[in-house]
Structure formats: structure tokens, C-alpha cells
Amino acid sequence: MSARTVSTRRTATTVAGALLAAGALLSVSACGAGQISQTANQVAAINGANQTFVDQKIALTDVHVLFPVAGSQGKLAFVVTNLNAHQGDKLKGISDEKGRFATISGDTTLAPNGSLYGTAPAGSDTKASGVTRLTVSVPVDANWRPGLTNKLWFHLEKAGSLPIDVPIDAGAAPASAAGITPTAGEHGAGEGSGGH
């Protein structure tokens, strides 16, 4: 074997090794490219609608009608948060698309950086420290069904009327009790299920 053949083989082996190393490095670095982790953009697992009105400095979170609905009234759960650190506000009323108003009992004053809480969902701590809890009933009809939303307006003294599409909560009972017929492979709301 000549010196030239050995030198060519060494060069070829070195080049091949370098190419393999570069390929391995690229495949490892590209493995997660373009992917978003499952927890990067997740929001809290809550039942209701959420809307932040940046200009009015008001956030509405977890807005939903509690299941079951009794007669023509439904209990409304929500959190209204005043994002303004210097100016308070007041919840004047809540109305639906037909102009009907909710019945609200409790102090509706919204302190700077404060929150108002609607009717407590089952299992909530109704005596939590620092929580101003209201009792709110909204008129409901056949349009209020699990899986659908209806528009409500939160009328505030300073922030004005803020619209939000509100769902009815299917509740903790099996889905069939809430008017939903599960298809094969689906679980009722009361059964455990795994994560993503």
C-alpha cells in the first residue's frame, strides 16, 4: 500500500467523521425547532369565558352560568377585576341580549386593584378572606344550553358596558344529565381523564 493511498483513506475517514458529527449536531439542534412546549401558552383550567378590556382597565374571568339552571333563572359565576390602581368603579348591572337585567345582591363597589366575585360555584370557598362575593341570577331560556354561548353586558359606572360571550357550565354531573349525549370514546364531565 502506498503512502498516497493511506493518506487518501485517512482524509476520507476524517471527512466522513466530520460530516457524521455535523449531521448529528444538526439533527439534535433541529429536533425542537418550531415546536411550542405544551405548557408555554396554557391558560388556567376554568369553566367560563375570559375577556380583558385594556382601555377600560377591567378584566372579566371565569364568567359562566352554573348548572343546573332552576326555572327561568341561572346563577352567574364570574370575577370582575379592576386593573386600575388609582380609580375605583362600581358594577351597576348585568344585562342580556334581550335587555333583561340580572338580579344582584351584595356590595358592587369595585376598589382600585380589587375584584368582585359572582355566585360561588359548587366546591368554592365561600368564606375566603378578602373575597367580595355577590349573589347573581340571570334570566335564562331555551337558548342557554351546554356548548352554546349567550352575550351578556357588564355595566360599570366608569368603564361603561362591556360585552362577553358566556357559556353555561355543564356541571360536575355526567354529560348526559346536562343535555349532552357522549359519543363512543368520550367521557362524562364527572369521569377522570388524562392530560394532553
UniProtKB/TrEMBL annotation:
The keyword Transferase does not apply. Keywords: Signal. The keyword Hydrolase does not apply. Residues 1-32 form the signal peptide. It holds the Pfam family PCuAC. InterPro entries: LpqE-like. It comes from the Bacteria. Residues 177-186 have a biased composition (Low complexity). This is Copper(I)-binding protein. It comes from Tsukamurella pulmonis.
